[in-house]
Structures are given as structure tokens and as C-alpha cells.
Amino acid sequence: MLKDRAQKASALRLAVRKRWLPQLEVEVEPSQRIDKSKFLLTDVDVLAIASSPLGTHSKFVFDCKSGARESAISRAFWLHGVIARTRSTRGFVILNDRVGISRDHRISASDLGVTLLHESEVDTFAAGLESSVAPIDSCAANIEAWEEFLSIKSKYPGLADYLEFSGSTYWMAKGPGDQCRKLVGKLRRIRAEIDPAKREHLAVFGDALCLFLNAVSEMAIDLFLLLLRPASRDEFTDALLAVLYGGYDNLEVAQKIRRIALGVEEDDAVSIFPDLPRFEHLIREIVQAPLQALPAALLARELSFRNLIDSPESVTSREITAEHPYASKFIYLASSYLTKALRLPPEFSELYNDQVAAIELALRSTSPTVP
Prior knowledge:
By secondary structure, the protein is α/β, with parallel strands linked by helices. The protein has helices at about 5-15, 70-85, 105-110, 120-130, 145-150, 150-155, 160-170, 175-190, 200-225, 235-245, 250-260, 275-290, 295-310, 315-325, 325-340, 345-365; strands spanning about 20-30, 40-50, 55-65, 90-95, 115-120. The longest helix has 28 residues, at about 200-225.
């Protein structure tokens, strides 16, 4: 069972109600590896991705401490370092009510980008954000589902490398292109391991779908703000590849390495990303409604944990689909891309697409008819 469980559950409920994308127990890696062995720096209890009015992403980190002997200002200094390493916007420390928090410490923590909260203040804090930490019908906010998901790594050693990546390295990446490329590579490596007949493996595919949509949502926002109306298809493709590889210089290096590996001439065209035409089509579609891709990632998380715990359709999944009409379309396109481009069993995308179709059908059947 997770430590500081009740506080983490409150942070999860707040995140999901705000339509932030939550990730539990993120392991923080060093900025550079010098040792051959892997040494983690620390871990983040809850990390959440929020969308700005323009669609750009912000990260929030939550530090949950239920012990009565914690130092509020010491936690603030620690979380300030975590904010810097994870490139987050702000941090929140949730403390036992018996821990003293002076006003001087509160304002000093705020100067560091950290808000100090007693457990009893979390309800008021959430209400100020026009939200709540009350119980919610959501699989993504279900602490038991998170505990079961986090235990998959020990149950299926063949998936451990991917799960270590999705719970750590992915969140340390320098940009969405880096996240996207590495995620696709990690998922391709386990295609012989995952079996759509196993609920844990369905959840792992849903996790990859969620993280993939999170990455491409930020990429699509970058392209939307860069090229409102691209002059040509080639211009869009060039910009997409530059965003995907973190700049034109990195793209040229990747293409050069690929040409050397294939033994082709320097001027020959090479493919450096799986099924680029299908990927480009996905991004073009998301650019038409870029603010709806992050909610699609949260919907994918809902479906992932629904399949893991064998839960019925959640109220939250219906609400997200109703609030963001393109979310189900983006899940369809993204899941189809991952299964076809990476040659995963087609049953993965078929199941997820059937589930979003059923949610849409249920919404249409309950919507009022116009006389």
C-alpha cells in the first residue's frame, strides 16, 4: 500500500476534476548519467499536467506528508529543487494538521513557487480553484487502480523496462518530441511481450496511449502557434519533423545516422520515424482542435484503468467525451497509429475504439432531442 495514501488520493481527485492529467509516484532521474548504475534523485508523489488557455502545458507537483514531525519550510526547499529538475510551474506540499506552518514560512515558500497546505485546508484550496476533492466516479482518480497499475512491473518482468520509462524517464524528457520518439521506441520493444487477452497488458497499452497523446498534444500546439496556415504540405512535414527531433540540426543528425545504417547515399530520402504519413495525418487532425488532445490523454487514462480493474464506464469518461467532442476521435487515430505503425496486436486499438464508440453512443441516446 502506498504511503501518505489519503493525501495522494485527494491530489488525484483534484487533478481529475480540473481535467489535469495525473501521474503517481514519478521517479526523478539525474540530469546526466555518469555512473553505470542508475541512481535516482527522489520521487514525486503526484505530478499533474494542465493546459493553459493557449494549450501550452504546465506541470504541477504535489508532495504529500502525513507525518507529524515534518518541517514545512524544509519540504518547501526540497520541492523547489524538484520543480527545477522537472521543469514544473508550481508545487504544493500537503502536511499533517499537527505540523506548524508560520505565515513567514508560507510567504517564503510561495517565493520559491511552493504552496504549503494543511490537510484540512485542501478542501478550501480546491474550492478556490472551482473544484473539489470529494469522491468522484473516475478510474484515473482511483487510488486502488494506481496501486494495482504500479504493481504490474513486478508481476511482468518483460514490461519492466517500459514501465520504468513511463514512470520516470518520460517525465524528465526535455520536450514533447523527445517524449514521443522515446515512447514509440519503448513500446515497439515490448510488442512481443504484450497480450491483449491480459487486463494488465491492456492497461499498459492504455498508459502508452495516454502518454503518446500527452506528447503529441504539446507538439500540435507548437505547430499550431508556429504555422497557422502552412504554405504547403512539405512545409508542414518539415516543421513537424523539426519539432519531433528538437530542431533542424538534430533532425539532420538523425537522418545522417539512418543513411549510414542503411548504407545509402547522402542525398537519398530515408524514413526515420515509423509510418510517418499516418503520424503526420494524426498531427494534422489534432492541430484542427489542439486544446482537446490533453483531455483525450486523460480519457485514455480513464479507459486504461477501467480495463485494469474491470470497471464499468465511469461518469468522468462520459463527461470528458461530452466536454471535448474530438477526444474520442483522437483516441481512435492515436491507438490506430500505435498498433499499425508498431505492429502491435490490433485487438488493443479495437477494444479502446469500441469503448469510446460505446460512450459516444450512450451520450447520443441520453441527449435531449430538439423538437
